[in-house]
Write a sequence for this structure.
């Protein structure tokens, strides 16, 4: 049985039952706003691989950040992280609750936000 | 290329700070424990191709043409109609010169807001949960 899903055109036609003059571009913008909000919940679960660099502590998860295959990550919430062990297997690693580390590194600080120059 | 870390579950930790993932370890690039107790936890000291595997909630792809199908489970597609109507009714309420019409528009907008919230936030994830069957707990083997 084919999965029933609706296209933007069908959403627009349902909306135009009550708002006949609803502009197409505006409705499409609203759909995109809704998709951003849906993305906060577990609507799309994705996995990605990132390569580590020696002595790099911070790894970028901004909207435009990329994985090791150069795909855009588009991360909203990370809920599981694995690290490759010496056999090449991925092993789940725990999340640290106490973030007050004594030591930090300067080599990867460019990943973090820095003050604007203006 | 595998890493030199034998037990990442004991030797590695992660946390999120803003838009960045912090990855630390208490072993050096040879897999030996860091000797300085004060500076025990440091950055991973080796380059490992595809060393980190992340699981995360991602941003669905946006739509740009009428033939696009929204990049979310089809059970949430109708909720998008509610979201759009909610916004349009609220716009209408703001534009209307007649207070009664404005009140009606606001209340219909709230109704669509409720349906959106229920579909996406309140029940959406439970309804879409692909886990079925009886609830039971299978403990780890202690041997």
């Amino acid at each position: 049985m084919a999965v029933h899903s609706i296209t933007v055109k069908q959403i627009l036609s349902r909306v135009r039952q009550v708002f006949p003059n609803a502009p197409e571009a505006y409705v499409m913008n609203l759909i995109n706003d809704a998709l951003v909000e849906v993305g906060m919940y577990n609507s799309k679960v994705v996995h990605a691989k990132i390569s580590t660099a020696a002595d790099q502590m911070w790894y970028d998860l901004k909207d435009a950040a990329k994985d090791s295959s150069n795909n855009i990550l588009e991360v909203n919430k990370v809920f599981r992280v694995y690290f490759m062990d010496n056999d090449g297997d991925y092993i789940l690693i725990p999340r640290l609750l106490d973030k007050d580390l004594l030591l930090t590194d300067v080599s990867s600080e460019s990943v973090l936000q820095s003050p604007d120059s203006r | 290329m595998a890493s030199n870390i034998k037990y990442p579950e004991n030797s590695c930790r992660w946390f999120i700070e803003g838009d960045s993932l912090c990855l630390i370890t208490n072993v050096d690039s040879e897999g030996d424990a860091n000797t300085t107790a004060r500076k025990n936890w440091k950055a991973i000291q080796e380059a490992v191709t595809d060393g980190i595997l992340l699981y995360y909630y991602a941003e669905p792809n946006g739509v740009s043409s009428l033939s696009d199908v929204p990049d979310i489970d089809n059970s949430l597609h109708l909720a998008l109609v509610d979201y759009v109507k909610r916004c349009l009714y609220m716009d209408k309420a703001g534009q209307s010169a007649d207070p009664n019409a404005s009140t009606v528009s606001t209340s219909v907008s709230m109704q669509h807001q409720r349906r959106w919230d229920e579909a996406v936030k309140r029940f959406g994830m439970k309804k879409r949960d692909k886990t079925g069957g009886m609830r039971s707990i299978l403990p780890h083997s202690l041997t």
Helices of chain B lie at 8-11, 77-95, 99-122, 124-128.
